[in-house]
Design brief:
heterodimer; A: mainly alpha; two-stranded antiparallel sheet; two-stranded antiparallel ribbon; 26 helices; B: alpha/beta; Alkaline Phosphatase, subunit A; eight-stranded mixed sheet; three-stranded antiparallel sheet; 15 helices; 12% strand; globular
Chain lengths: 536, 439
């Protein structure tokens, strides 16, 4: 369905004719498209009414394209980012340039403020500090005469401002890492000076695709390290390298219990025996690669779990990974028709690598990932033709993510006005930060508000419990009471802020007129709370 | 999961736009409190051929996402296979001492952390079906939840949630979801109310400031659907926060409960998590009789490793669940009120290699309400011997979840067989469950 969306839904053309849903268009799609008319009409009207531009059809599409480029390739408009796009010549040129820039940036260490840097420490240090924290807490608990006494956090007030410069309490180590990771993440998504915008976007996409949950205690200290060293580092590289890096990182090994999966009958503590755990093997096929209808069976799940036995955490290793040959099941296995003959146990690490690369190269994997990319960047129901082209480029390039992005950002579908996207809470939070916090510097109060908003809106940072990750569509996030929470955040964030006047050209005539009638103190909040600001 | 050919997975937008209608109907709320009129003396439907439309009970579904381990909640202590399959994580057979299961009968016991439910079992208002579930054998959480919430096993394409369709059967009836942004079970064309988890539900935020509220709403004055959704959201938000705040301030009885709960909780403080959400759900449904269907969910049940036994991570979750159910029973104890506790599938009958359990098939389905033929378990149970297991490893599904829902909806909501067939196309009435509810 919907090979070509109906022309009368096309935004940015100032077409006043909108009526019943065109034949063949689902009612929901129709409503959803029609809902975004304020932005569409406004930009169109603006493009056609600005002096010196009205006659030029190219510049007539410039404002909406500008908005789309900064809101989808990055997280949203800021004066500096708009200037950068202008300098690049056109939104499209700028967008395409970001691919190489993002890839280059991904190969360099990230810019992390010194007081946030603990979360990106070498893995053996994180393991050691986590162990120390556990022992210390045990000791503090044992020392407390009243069991109800809770360990007080001496730095709670500083944490509340995300100021970590003087916070060292070792008994709050993982809590600090969690907050530091959130501060870095929100900063990198909203400030192009910290992170290339497309790299921040792709970091979100892949973190979500290979989701880990910061609420799982054992995983918590490693989430930030995983974000930077697995997800960010491979975000524009080869998919199979990314997948393999995630498979070997302590965050994933612990999140989906691979660290505990061993050959059936392996010796465990206190003379008890241990064995297989299917969790990671299943989600590796169902979610990370093939998809639930990708053609694997319960037998494949068991067999893949057997292949991966012995893959576990290595607290002393620089990469946090260890292969334990004695815990590997060295019998013969078959996964999706590929055989892994009985071998020496030491060969088990390579077996796992081969299996993961094999899964990454399956056409079903290419299909699943390209569909998700198109949903992330283009539309909730992306044109099947686009997905097909992306899939082909994925297969032709052996899973080169940059190559796929090149096809995506160059496609007319990416720029087509009817391919609407409603902002998720994460989009909304980061675009609001981008619009208002460019000069915030070390003041992280805006980031604190954003993190709180994400918690209330149902999209806490690194906080999705299950391995499927967040859904990004409007059907999930365009919900009545939830919309009002965007307004709460908008006004909290802009209290005592000057009005982001540079947003004016992106607002509809009606919105601008309405805001002009209100008290000036409300202007900034109203701009961010406006219907125009809800779409990307 | 989704393909480009499928329709949108959730059809939520128009779902929510009817909220304005709900709010408008608030003023007539007193005229529509039919469920209050339902009394124990009322003649009851007997068997599948009666048609009865005066049932107006309220229905709450508590969905345990992640597949809870029913074999730890409803302990088959009479079956030696259970202890053979689970050498490290089985719940001990009842012997009266701490951390052993609580005897229900010679076959089953209750997890000790769920002791709070024992009185409800003994009063006969709590019952269970040990081997229920979906006829589709998927072991994918996400597919199975999709099937469960749409009422369409095996179909993963876009569809409405069955609770939304149920609410749509009566003009003034609404569904309420507490906790999730937009659960599939509530997606569809009937208006629903969605409030967030935790204390955030009680706050009016920027909508509580008149000047800000009015200025924002002037931006959403149009007839486009985003504007309508925002206006409905603003009204709903004010209503929700006002209702919950009033309830907090004006309920000494609850304050006592809260203190008792805190004491029992070893000073853990006021209600939080699922219990708090359940309190919010109950308050909102009590204050607005049009809200007849409620949905709650809890995560953290996907216990692949170190799930514990009498104590541990799973036991803590089960304790919180039991406390929540006790609270829900207080609030939903009118004649035809019903609370269901379900999960997308069960877990392996054997423990895995890391003292947890992997994805299985059949699972225990709990029902609580005055009409439940409770204090006993229902349906078929063949034990855990090797020959009795699905694919040699999991509890089988002897009772289709839709057939269980059909019993409930027929008895407590008065749905006709035609309506049930529309709601659950292709399901079959399960007459072996005809004594599940009192008739």
């Amino acid at each position: 369905m919907l090979a070509k969306p109906s022309p009368d839904l096309s935004a940015f053309t100032a077409s006043p004719t909108r009526s019943a849903p065109p034949p063949g268009l689902s009612r929901r799609h129709w409503l959803w498209s029609a809902a975004s008319v304020p932005l569409a009409g406004g930009l169109g009207a603006l493009a056609f009414s600005r002096p010196g531009q009205a006659q030029n059809s190219d510049s007539g599409t410039q404002w909406p394209h500008l908005w789309r480029a900064v809101s989808r390739v990055g997280y949203g408009a800021s004066p500096a980012l708009l200037a950068a796009v202008k300098q690049a010549g056109s939104p499209r040129d700028w967008a395409l340039q970001q691919i190489d820039l993002a890839r280059t940036a991904s190969q360099k260490p990230p810019l992390i403020a010194p007081d946030l840097a603990d979360f990106n420490a070498p893995l053996p240090d994180i393991f050691a500090a986590t162990k120390r924290e556990r022992e210390l807490r045990k000791q503090l608990k044992a020392d407390a005469t009243d069991p109800a006494t809770r360990v007080k956090n001496p730095a709670a007030a500083l944490e509340r401002r995300m100021d970590f410069s003087q916070i060292k309490a070792p008994e709050f180590y993982t809590r600090r890492l969690t907050l530091q990771t959130a501060a870095w993440r929100l900063g990198s998504c909203s400030q192009p000076a910290i992170e290339n915008p497309l790299l921040a976007r792709m970091t979100e996409f892949w973190f979500n695709h290979l989701n880990v949950f910061i609420g799982k205690g054992a995983v918590r200290p490693f989430v930030g390290h995983y974000l930077v060293n697995v997800i960010r580092a491979h975000a524009l590289g080869k998919f199979e390298d990314l997948l393999l890096a995630s498979a070997r990182h302590p965050a994933m090994l612990l999140y989906l219990d691979q660290a505990q999966s061993v050959a059936d009958g392996s010796p465990g503590a206190q003379g008890r025996s241990r064995g297989l755990n299917e969790n990671y093997a299943r989600e590796l096929m169902e979610l990370h690669t093939l998809g639930v209808n990708g053609g694997y069976s319960q037998t494949d799940v068991r067999e893949l779990a057997r292949v991966l036995t012995g893959w576990t955490i290595g607290p002393m290793q620089p990469d946090g990974f260890r292969f334990a040959p004695r815990l590997h099941d060295n019998g013969g296995k078959h996964v999706l028709g590929h055989s892994f003959p009985a071998s020496a146990q030491a060969a088990g690490e390579q077996e796992g690598i081969d299996a993961i690369r094999m899964l990454a190269r399956q056409p079903a994997t290419a299909q699943r990932i390209c569909l998700r990319l198109a949903q992330f960047f283009v539309a909730d129901q992306p044109p099947p033709g686009l997905v097909k082209r992306l899939r082909q480029s994925f297969l032709d390039s052996q899973g080169d993510i940059s190559a796929v992005l090149r096809v995506l950002l160059a496609s007319s579908d990416f720029w087509a006005a009817d391919n609407k996207l409603f902002k998720t809470p994460m989009d909304y939070a980061c675009s609001a930060l981008a619009a208002t916090q460019e000069a915030a510097g070390a003041d992280r109060r805006g980031l604190v508000l954003a993190a709180d908003y994400l918690n209330n809106a149902g999209q806490p940072l690194h906080g999705w419990q299950t391995p499927d990750g967040y859904v990004f569509d409007a059907a999930t996030w365009l919900a009545p009471e939830a919309l009002t929470r965007r307004s709460d955040f908008a006004f909290a964030l802009t209290r005592r802020q000057s009005t982001p006047e540079f947003l004016q050209p992106f607002l509809s005539e009606a919105t601008r007129r309405s805001i002009a009638h209100e008290a000036p103190a409300l202007h900034a909040g109203l701009m961010l709370a406006s219907p125009d600001f809800m779409y990307k | 999961m989704t393909t480009p050919h499928t329709l949108p997975r959730r059809q939520i937008l128009h779902t929510l736009l009817g909220l304005g209608g709900w709010l408008a109907s608030q003023s007539q709320a007193n005229d529509t409190m039919q469920f209050v009129a339902a009394s124990p003396e009322e003649p009851r439907a007997r068997g599948k051929n009666d048609v009865k439309n005066s049932k107006q009970g309220r229905l709450v579904v508590v969905f345990l996402r992640g597949a809870y381990d029913g074999l730890s909640a409803l302990v088959p202590h009479g079956d030696p296979s259970y202890y053979a399959l689970r050498p490290n994580i089985a719940i001990a057979a009842p012997d009266g001492s701490a951390q052993t299961s609580l005897q229900l009968d010679d076959t089953f016991g209750l997890h000790p952390a769920m002791a709070a439910l024992l009185p409800l079992w003994q009063q006969g208002v709590l019952g269970v079906i040990p081997c229920a579930g979906s006829p589709d054998a998927t072991r994918s959480h996400f597919d199975a939840q999709h099937h469960w919430e749409t009422g369409l096993p095996g179909k993963s394409s876009a569809a409405n949630g069955w609770m939304n369709s149920l609410a749509g059967l009566h003009p003034n009836t609404r569904a309420l979801g507490v906790g999730e942004a937009n659960p599939l079970i509530l997606a569809g064309s009937a208006p629903v109310q969605l409030v967030p988890r935790g204390q955030a539900a009680t706050r009016a935020g920027s909508m509580g400031d008149e000047r800000t509220h009015d200025a924002v709403l002037r931006l959403y004055a149009g007839q486009d659907d985003l504007s309508k959704a925002f206006r409905a959201g603003a009204d709903s938000r004010l209503q929700t926060s006002q209702t919950l705040t009033e309830a907090q301030m004006s309920m000494p009885a609850n304050a006592v409960d809260a203190r008792q709960m805190a004491a029992a909780d070893n000073g853990a403080g006021p209600a939080k998590g699922l219990l708090l959400d359940a309190q919010h759900l109950a308050t909102l449904m009590r204050r607005n009789p049009n809200l007849r269907y409620g949905f709650l969910s809890a995560g953290g049940w996907d216990t692949h490793s170190n799930q514990g036994a009498g104590t541990g991570a799973l036991a803590n979750n089960l304790r919180a669940l039991a406390d929540t159910l006790v609270q829900l029973r207080r609030d939903f104890s009118q004649t035809n009120d019903m609370v269901l506790v379900v999960s997308e599938f069960g877990r392996t009958s054997a423990e895995n290699g890391s003292r947890g359990t992997d994805h299985g098939h059949g699972n225990a389905f709990w029902l609580m309400g005055s009409q439940v033929n409770g204090g006993r378990w229902h349906g078929r149970w063949d034990g855990l011997a090797q020959g009795q297991l699905h694919e040699g490893r999991d509890l089988p599904v002897h009772h289709d979840f839709r057939a269980v829902l059909a019993q409930v909806l027929r008895h407590t909501q008065g749905l006709t067989l035609t309506q049930l067939a529309d709601l659950f196309p292709g399901y079959a009435w399960d007459s072996t469950l005809d004594d599940l509810l009192r008739a």
